[in-house]
Amino acid sequence: MATARLLSIPLEGLDPSKLWPHLPAEVRAIAARSLYAHDAADTTARQLADIAIARALRFREVAVRKLPIDRRVDYLVRAVRPDDSLGSSLLLALHMENRRPMLAVFLDALGIPHENGAIADAGHVEPPPADRLAAAADRIFESFPAEEVEVYLTSLLALDSATWGELVPVLERLGSKR
Predict the structure, then answer these.
(1) What total number of domains does the chain contain?
(2) Which domain holds residue 127?
(3) Which residue of 27, 50, 129, 162 has the smallest Cβ count within 10 Å?
């Protein structure tokens, strides 16, 4: 699913809105579908998505909410350029809804406390050193599809470069292998 295009994007200053258009359409569709499925009690992210669709299509938000989920997913994939807030929600939904086992293995390798892949105290994670990040990345590459790992590592960097900035050399190494 991931492409050389994903691994060749500039990593400095990467944020969710810059990463989104570089993700393959299949990954964007999984993320959008996950957003609508993830945590039904929290409607904020879905509202952001519906507003973004309405703006992109010049529809009223109420009309978008009446659309079937499949149509909204399609519009998010093809027509919406999400801002950082919506982009963050989409990336988080992708990984929290579909890829928790990978997150758990990665966090275990780093010794970061988590609950089924969700960091226990996300606001207080010390940035792991580059060598530990590289070892944790190698560990998940052994067990999960490379395309999913590439999207996950790039997403971490886009979501929080202060914590995950040492992933840059890992991702650059991947890019140079292609």
Answers:
(1) 1
(2) 4-177
(3) 162
